[in-house]
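Internal ticket #5521
Category: modeling
Description: The requester needs a full-assembly model to guide mutagenesis choices. All entity lines are attached below as received. Residue total reported by intake: 1541.
Assigned to: D.W.
Attached entities:
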Amino acid sequence: MICKSLIYKSLIGIFFLGLSLNISAEVSPDDGKALFRSKCATCHNKNMKSNSTGPALGGVQERWIDYPESDLYAWIRNSQALIATGHPRANEVYVQYNKSAMTAFPDLTDDDIGSLLAYINGVYDGTYGAVAGSVAVVGDAQAQEKGIGGWLYWILFAVLLLFAFILTRIIGNLNYLAAEKDGQSYQRKTVLETLTSKGVISFILFGLVVLGAYTAASNAINLGRQQGYAPEQPIKFSHATHAGVNQIDCKYCHDGARRSKHSVIPATNTCINCHSAIKYGSEYGTAELTKIYASIGYLPKGTGEYIPNYDKLSLDEKKEIYTGWMLENTIENDEDFEVVTDDLLDEIDNQWDDIVTSLTSDHRPKINGEVNIEGPIEWVRIHNLPDHVYFNHAQHVTVGGLDCQTCHGKVEEMEVVAQYSPLSMGWCINCHRQTQVQFAGNEYYESYTKYHDEIEAGAREGMTVEDIGGLECQKCHY
Amino acid sequence: MKNSQDGIWIGGKDLNHDPEFIQEAQKEVQIASLQNTVNTVGDETIANEADSSRRDFLKYLGFGLGAATVAASCEIPVNRAIPYVVKPEVIVPGVATYYASTYVKGGEYCPVLVKTREGRPIKIEGNALSPITGGGTSARAQASVLDLYDVNRLKAPQVAEDDGFASASWDDLMSSVGSALNSGSRIRIVSNTILSPSFKSLISEFSAKYPNTKLVQYDPVSISALLDANDKSFGERVVPDYKFDKADYIVSFNADFLGTWISPIEYSKAYSTKRKIKSVKGASMSRHVQVESHMSMTGSNADHRILVKPSEQSSAVAYLYNQVLGGNVGTAGLTAKAKKGLQKVAQQLIAHKGHAIVVSGNNNLGEQLLINAINNHLGNYGNTIGFTHASMQRQGSDSDMAALVAEMNAGRVDVIIIHDANPVYDYFNGAAFAAGLEKVGSKIALAYRHNETTTLCNVIAPIHHGLESWGDAEAKKGQISIIQPTIHPLFDTKQAEEVFMALAGSRFVDDEQPYFSYLRSKWSQAVGASGFTSTDAMVDEILREGLVNAGGGPELSFSGISVSEASNALVRPSSGDALEISFQEPVSIGNGVHANNPWLQEMPDPVTRTTWGNYLAVPVEFDGVKKFIGYKKLKDGDLVKLTIGEKTMTVPVIQQFGQMPGTVSLAMGYGRENGGFATQGIGVNVNDSLTVVDNYGQYFATNVSVENTGREEENFSCVQYHHTMGVTSADKNGELMNADEAALAPGYGNVFAGFQGALVERSILRKSNLNHLEEEVDHLIHEREHFEELNQQTLYPYDQYTEELYSQGHHWGMHVDLTACTGCSACTIACMAENNVPVVGKDKVAIHQEMSWLRIDRYYFGDVENPNTVYQPLMCQHCDNAPCENVCPVNATNHSSEGLNQMTYNRCIGTRYCANNCPYKVRRFNWNDFTTADIFPANQVKVNGENLPFGADNLTRMVLNPDVTVRSRGVIEKCSFCVQRIQEGKLTAKMERRKLTDLDVKTACQTACPTGAITFGDMNNKKAEVTKKMNSPMTYAVLEEVNVRPSVMYSMKVLNKDENFDA
């Protein structure tokens, strides 16, 4: 009877655990975040504190406090309409920002706008979860999920153990009864005797050996794998900002993916393409952006210029040039700093120290005894395939038509890039087993005549990578 | 036993059924020698490993595991990804960029495409646009990329001090050189042949500033007499344009034109166009007669060889002259057989008037004059020999050199500039040159690495490798090709031209790339004429193609020879039966010029099959009954005392079929004193033993004796008997049987005789003479049908497998034309470069551990004293029914749906079952760690005792192909059909959304081959070249009877022998 109640209880437990997973709490700031990204982020800075093309959005409700809330909602939905009505606040802002009109979003519901404002306030106050935490949140969720899986197994294990125990007792009792019936004397084993019997001990030993071997094997297989590896990079480059908010195509920077085996870490001059215009970072201001400039010797003043004889300058001269610019740029863009203060000077100094540390490398020779900050940025490589594996991006991206996200995960949401896939052979193989070859319109695949005939005859739906030899050793190892 | 063999053989041991050889052939490696070396590897001695017990093994195992775990501590190292700062537009990391350039080394010439990856040159390909080479390459051109990463390169300028040399700066060096020069100083520039017209004009600018300057050119192997003879007969000191593709009858006196003579790539290509069989019906090919004493690579390809002693070459030429023109020049010596042969040759030459070529490689003015007269009489000039595109590839003058040596010794030279040459070693009068050097005030060497000459100089200016240089080369008149740099100079070097520009005070000297500016200004003069709108456009086009056509020179007319002058200049043969020796330039390392290139050192000589050193080739005598005995009963590997004049040296012996009785021969280029790490302690130097006649170096000597020392060469690194297949043996009754058979059934007599797979007559080679071609082809077809019938006797429905597996997609196959293959070995080096095949060193070759994926087997057939030769390039045959695959316990080798026999190194646990089961013996085991991946130094391979194993330093490693795995110790490797190229070609086709064509996938050996003997492609493509060749009736598979279904097919070797030649 005990066991019945146990099963009952554990089932209830599982039910509740499952339920707790499915609960989706109402989190309007999250909706707001999505809306912000899709509609606002192209013009408004996502830190809500600095101006971009459009004004900083932080504290917008306070600025509209003198007017009914509906005015703000109307303003967000269609600013031109509100300006046309002669609304004083609307016209004031319009003039302040050089009469550049904001795009109209007539389909935004009140809830949407509420969510948006909640998100904006949350970010502005710092109460909305630190953006960097988003990866961790995902990780936690995964961990939780795994945990639940684990718990289920433990509960099942306990239940089975209990069954086994109860069954042993029942068998013991039955044997005892049978013996009694036959009039024989039967020594009933105590619980302790049962537990220390040869059978149980050898079973436990066997179990331990199996468990040990399994753990050793699975850990050995995982040796050298680094799924989830998210090292700190010399520059806090945010894919979330670039690929997510600004929706830059992955292959704009990683242009090798289309035509080479390597996707290619972009050269520093690729950064300058955009950052000759965008000179103040949404998250870190000048702290991270200046690293690019200092590594290549670019001064983004005015229309921007490459500093002549940059390699001949001493570190102090470089510092003077860049800290000077950083100071100007911060005052211009950061509302927290309007005049030169000691705090600001300290801040800039700290930033410069960090820039020098990040750009210093053991591989670069020193110049006149000084560290050399000019040169390639040494990123930490995240995706490391062993040398004996040949992987070609062009094959997968250009020929296979795969999205980058298939293997790299939602990089556009990653503040710090982490390795999404295990990059294990099993993972590769599974994908090759399941993926259909994009053969339509590619004359190359016409040489697979038999498969084409079969497809025509309806005997085959398509051909997978496996069908055309995608599992063979020398497709990847040579 | 008759004098002629129906079958084929690879050497004396094979013919004699030497039990030692048979035993050896059955083993993959020599175990006894293996143990010896393992125990004394490096400086350490591993104590009696063979005696250690199992307990020791476990102890070591446990300790090793523990140590490895601690060492690795399971932590993943942080790798860095370092991008460009500013990425060059043309470079995409991971995609190779090709640049057109030219390989030039003295007079050696080959227009090339340089494959670079991320700015590193890693492979040389031929430039197919070249009218001279048509995309062919040579082993030396292929190996030149390794020279770029030579660890012995000079890395900075050096100035002589009391004891040795000290590094200096370029400024110091230039000022010290500048101060040594003044307008009155007597300056001599010594160089090997200069092909560059721009460099020559630069030297004349230099001479304008320093009027008392003279350029002296010489060649490491001189053909000065040929040039001088042409000067006399045609008024211009040039090598004519030999058109072997227009010749039906070729007679060569000692000229190794397919291997080393003047322009071997060009000649091989042209020669093979007349030798390849296009169709069995009405087949035709040229006939080639070689007159020589030793078996040269060219001689081995000839239809007939007339054996003539080195000192009787003059007589032979004179004899032919007399026969053709009816002259009466003295012809002392000559055997009756040689005379008869030459008579036949004369008759046939006359029958082929206007379609013949007669050449001589001998450095004798008289002979060359007579040859000119013969060619003129036969009407060859204007037909098979022309001057419009006369060759510039040899310009050296022996008389200029002799004059210079005399001047130096008389103290009449103030400054000598030695440009990328090593006369102290490779000039035949090097000792006199060295003596003269001492009397010269300023001795400046422009050198790539230290050599015997640089060590005698005051100042050494380190020069660029060709791949770091700008330049041009006019190999043949009007046919110019361009040299452009493919990598930023690795060290503090300059190109020689820049040094001259600085000294001549050129206006471009302060430019970033002075010599490029110089070249550009020269090219820009031709902008208008060339139809380009701007210099930039023209330069772009020139650099893209790498070739410029600048017309050609005039045809020259023959002005007659003075027969008495010629006759007087001829060599008088030494009387009697004295032993004579001839010296040859080896196909691999030249006269020591390429000696520090380990790829070339380890490349087996095409004929003798020896590596790492020179071996005295001695004739093999037939006792008329059964045995084949080396000269003085010498066996392969015996050390002999060789006396030439007053010099004695100890050399190992190799028995050489086709070596004329009464003669021996030895390769030049070895025995370097100061040639770099790969040359240390290897071979003997014979350059100082050359005879000099009228200032012309003669590549033979007559006062020779050979004496057995009773010792044997320790590391006999001849690959002749390694990896042999189809070895025959004799049973008790002297009947031929298969050696494997005897091994399979010891004591059972012939019970197993005749079972499939153990046939006595294995079908390794098919050969035919042109006049029997149709019969032989019929015979082959019949035999193949028989094999097919045998092969059908199987439980496995093979046809069904084939249908299922290979009926769609690709089915890769290779075809090798044995008639076109000359044995030049460009393919073996190309394979090493492409596939990161390691160099193992002399001692490892000696114990069968060479790693080459592609070997060229050399077989003899016919007359045992003067046999014909077949070269058979043998690589993994990618059998569709592969015996290696089903014996692998871990499935490390298996078959792909495209017909590739795949080798997966990571799965391989080194059982070597596959290598044992391979009937072709093409699998190689990594006995040692060639890449220093192993933590135990004793496992690492050293070449000549270098501290770091060869190829393990970061400089040499730059040559590695990043698309091919570097194999570690303990795994098997073999030819992969260049799978990385297959994959690349397929990807290109896929990305361009089109069908795969023949041009997309070419293997490294295929592109390297100058004669187009190798064809690779998709056998499922009916239009592919390879499919057409596979379907030729002359095509066969090696060991077809063992039913392994190889994907490599060969076509019959065809000779054009005149069967009445010896009658």
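Resolution: model delivered.
Comment from assignee: The two ends of chain B are 20 Å apart (CA to CA).
Ticket closed.
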